[in-house]
Structure formats: C-alpha cells, structure tokens
Amino acid sequence: MANQEYLALLERGVEDWNEWRQMQSVKPDLSGANLSKIDLELIDFTRTDLNGANLSQASLRGAYLRDADLSNTLLLEIDLQDADLRNALLYNADLTKAKLIRAQLLNANLTGAILRDANLCDANLSWADLTNVDLRGANLTGVDFSRAKLQAANFNLVDLCATNLIEADFRQANLVGVDFSGANLSRANLSGADLREAYLFDVKLAGADLTGCNLKGACLHAIDLREVKLEGANLSGTDLEGAILPVNKRAVGNQDDITLGY
C-alpha cells in the first residue's frame, strides 16, 4: 500500500515533490494509490513503486519514470507524451487509449500489457519486451521496434509502414492484415507468425526468419527473398509477382496454392 507520507508530499505539488526527490535516494512506495485525473507533468517518479496504482486520465507529460514499477496499473487515457519510461516495468498494465507520443520505452517490460487504440507515434520501443501485448488499433507511426521482443503480440490490422523492426522478435505474433510497406525487418524473427493478408511491399527482409509462417493471401510483390528462411511457410494465394525467391528464380503473377518447404 502507498506510504501516506509520500501521498501527502505529492499533494503539495510536483515542484515540491521533485525538489524532495533531488535530496533523497529512496524508492517511494505509491503502490495502489489513486492518482487518476491528476496533473503530474514533469514529475520525477524514477524508481517509484506504482504497482497496482490508478493513473487513468492523469497527465504525466515529460515525466521521469525510468526504472519505475508500473505493473498491473490502470493507465487508461493517460498522457505520457515525451515521458522517460526506460527500463520501466509495465507487466499487465492497461494503457488503452494512452498517449505515448515520443515516449522513451527502451528496454521496458510490457509483457501482457493492453495498448489498444494507444498513440505511440515516434515512440522508442527498441529492446522492449512486448510479449502477449494487445496493440490492436494503436497508432505505431514511426515507432522504433528494433530488437524488441514481440512474441504472441496482437497486431491485427495495425499499420507498421516504414517502421524500424530490425531484429524484432515476432514469433507466433498475430499480424493478420498488417501493412509493413517500407518497413525494415532485416534479421527479424517471424517464425510461426500469422501474416495472412499482410502487405509487405518494399520491405527489407535480409536475414529474416519466416519459418512456418502463414502468408496466405499476403502481398510480397517484387520483394527479395533470397536471404529469407521460408521452410514450411504457407504461401498459398500469395502475390509473388516479381519476387526473387531463395531458389534464385523469379515468381511471375499470383501464385495459387503454393507452399514453400525445403
């Protein structure tokens, strides 16, 4: 439970709280606290325990949350624009409709988090753990997912155009209908992912692993697959017009009922 002295200090305002934090090296306990709809812009919550807290509709623009524990928190419609969440713990946090524009989430752990309809435009999620995360309806324009762990994440019908996905781990992820056009998936692990009806035009896939992927109905028009692992991938109904296949021949037109496996 939240320490009442810390709550009392917080009620005095962000300026007093931050001044106190500069003089103390403690890890404040605000677990379970109700901080919903409060203006906490630029607050210093570095290493703060906010496990199970309610911060829904609160404003934490530019807040410092590095190494903070936000596991199991309610963060519905929270404003975390430009916030520093590096190394933060966000296990099972509910960030539905959260505003995370330009937020720094490098190496953050968001396992099981809900980010439905969240705005992550230009956020940094490199090295982050997004295993089993629900990202349906999220705005991921310009997000950096390089080397992120995205196993079993739900990206159904999400737009990932021109996104940095170098070495991202998408194993078993739901990527049905995702638009990857212009994205960089070099050395990404997409083994076992569901990529039905996905759009992969002008995507960089050098060194990517698509072993066992379901690419039924996907568009791989004019894509270079020579350095891609495709063992057991289902390419039935996939648009491979102009694609360069690993066997070093060009597929012409839509290839119906094709499954590559070797």
Descriptive notes:
The protein has 262 residues and is largely without helices or strands. 7% of the residues lie in helices and 5% in strands. It has 2 helices and 6 strands, in the order ααββββββ. It has helices spanning 4-11, 14-23; strands at residues 233-234, 238-239, 243-244, 250-251, 254-255, 259-260. The strands form 3 sheets. Strands 1-6 form a two-stranded antiparallel ribbon. It has a two-stranded antiparallel ribbon with strand order 2-5. It is elongated, with a radius of gyration of 21 Å. The N and C termini lie far apart (57 Å). The relative contact order is 0.07.
Q: What are the defining features of this structure?
A:
5% strand, 2 helices, little secondary structure, two-stranded antiparallel ribbon, 262 residues
- Strands side by side in the biggest sheet: 1-6
- Show unreliable segments: 248-262
Shape: elongated
Assembly state of the chains shown:
single chain
